[in-house]
Amino acid sequence: MSDTALTVGVVLGGVAPEHEVSIISALQAAAALDRSKYEPVPLYIAKDGMWYTGDHLLDVEAYRDIDELRETAIPLALFPGPHGTLECVEVRDGGALSHLTRPPRRFSIDVVLPGLHGGAGENGGVQGLCETFNVPYTGSGIFGSAIGMDKVLSKHLCQEVGIPVVDFVAFYEHEWAHREEDGLDRCEKEVGYPAIVKPARGGSSIGIMRAEDREQLDAAIEDAFRYDDKVVVERAVQELREINCSLLGDGTHVEPSVLEEPVASDDDEVLTFQDKYMREDDGGVKGGDKVDGPGPEGMASLDRIIPADLSDERTQEIQDLAIRIFRLFECAGVARIDFMIDEATDELFFNEINTIPGSFSFYLWDPSGVPFDELMDRMIQIARKQHREKNGRVRTYDVNLLAERSLSGLKGAKGE
């Protein structure tokens, strides 16, 4: 590793149902970092929200026993540092550091790489922490992360600019409680059957169910409320083809990846969490070579067709629309946008956007001519560029309105 290598804080885990999925994606990213340029430092967020570090947290085997991992991991406190760095200080809590006589170690992070899925890591929470501490971070900002995480707000935003979405209704749990029959009537009137029910701010297909009748719809909505207090019910596309496109860039320059068509298992009509992450076979790519990546396969284990079997014209249409949506959500770094095609009508619909896609969509960028290490490098360089540009603008005034002279003026104005 070079003496000038940047320290990259790889954030993984998180308080979200996708905790383990995040670990896979983040460890893949850490393994792909060019060690001559970057030194990865794990910043693990446990399921109770505590932050830890330790070299062994870069080894997927360490996560087989979370209780043991936390006994040996080092708790952290975070502070804003000088020159746009994140300062991390080891915390003595009677655990990992209690036997040490040396003072707690303090180290700096140059760039934060959020590898979180769901929860505060993908909805703008960690991004807001980085903004507050003035630390460069990869991926989309607070706005794109927050809106992109909410399937209802995402659909409304796309509708406002004429991007087609399927018919849907949404409601909060307090609107549903004690008025279930009214809610079911509304779904049947505005959406119909079959319907797809989803937690509005979930991911990785967790809590998603298909309903063919009123009884199934009721059960699916109740189940979705286990994961979120807002639920969306969508019209199911009968002759469905799912097509995904990843994007890389920022507001000034964006490029699309090749397209993919995920393939559900024979028993499932919608892609499930098991389809995406719990395949017992090797998974792979139909129509091309198997996609390999460092560490666990994660999203790369899902069966998929790459490139998707579409005409050149249709491919270009989807890529152009994906770029438009990427810019609409003010995204940066890598994102993945999922579309649906109704084969019966040839209609194209926006489905959702993933501002931190599983496995960072490396399996789409490698066949696009961008290997995983280059993908990570470009994400980090985009983060640093945006940080420089932000700090090059006027962010404060060198005026103290609370100085004695200024205060007297304010008091006089108030008394007039």
From TrEMBL:
Q: Which residues bind Mg(2+) 2?
A: 352, 354
Q: What is its main location?
A: cytoplasm
Which residues take part in binding Mg(2+) 1? 338, 352
Q: Which organism is it from?
A: Longibacter salinarum
Instruction: Please write the reaction equations for the catalytic activity of this protein.
Output: 2 D-alanine + ATP = D-alanyl-D-alanine + ADP + phosphate + H(+)
Write out the GO MF terms.
ATP binding; D-alanine-D-alanine ligase activity; metal ion binding
Q: Which Pfam families match?
A: Dala_Dala_lig_C, Dala_Dala_lig_N
According to the entry, what is the taxonomic lineage of the organism? Bacteria, Pseudomonadati, Rhodothermota, Rhodothermia, Rhodothermales
Protein name per its UniProtKB record: D-alanine--D-alanine ligase
Which biological processes are named by the entry's GO terms? Answer: cell wall organization; peptidoglycan biosynthetic process; regulation of cell shape
